[in-house]
Amino acid sequence: MQKRKQYVEIEEDSGTVLRYFHHLNGDGLVEETAAVDPTAYVERSAYVDPGAKVDAHVRIHSGAWVDRDALVQAGALIGSAVHVGRGAVIGRGAKLGPRVKVGAGARVEDGAHVAADVIIAAGAVVREPR
User: How far apart are CA 13 and CA 101, in angstroms?
Assistant: First the structure.
């Protein structure tokens, strides 16, 4: 029986090689410099990029991508095929529906709900349901 490799290496356009490990809770891919709480669920085919931080009890669904230096705070829900942009902040208990695109540096405030297919501009702040 062949043993599964513990990590996946991905080469960026610049030639830098990034190493992603399978998260124990959900089997999603987490880059080695990202910080993901053990209670967070990162579903298979979702991934978390370098420098990103994912707090306790977050759920990240399939095909979602948490970009570099983004922060997903406790209890947030990231729907399938969502992109959380570079340096974006998703507040505590916020919910992002499927296929939402959060621009770089944008902020979704605590408890906000964002419906499916919404595009949030870079640097924008979402305080209420969209």
Answer: 22
Distance CA 69, CA 36 (A): 12
What the block records as the tokens of 36 is 């993901």
For residue 40, which of 27, 21, 49, 51 has the smallest C-alpha distance? 27
What is the Cα–Cα distance from 81 to 129, expressed in whole angstroms?
19
Q: Residues 18-77: pLDDT tens digits?
A: 999 999 999 999 999 999 999 999 999 999 999 999 999 999 999 999 999 999 999 999
CATH 2.60.40.10 at 7-126, yes or no? no
Distance CA 94, CA 127 (A): 10
pTM of the model as a whole: 0.93
CB 84 within 8 A of CB 101: no
Q: Which run of H or E residues covers position 30? A: strand 29-31
> Which residues, in sequence order, are bridge partners of residue 77?
59, 95
* Domain residue spans of the chain: 7-126
- In the 8-state DSSP scheme, what is residue 43? B
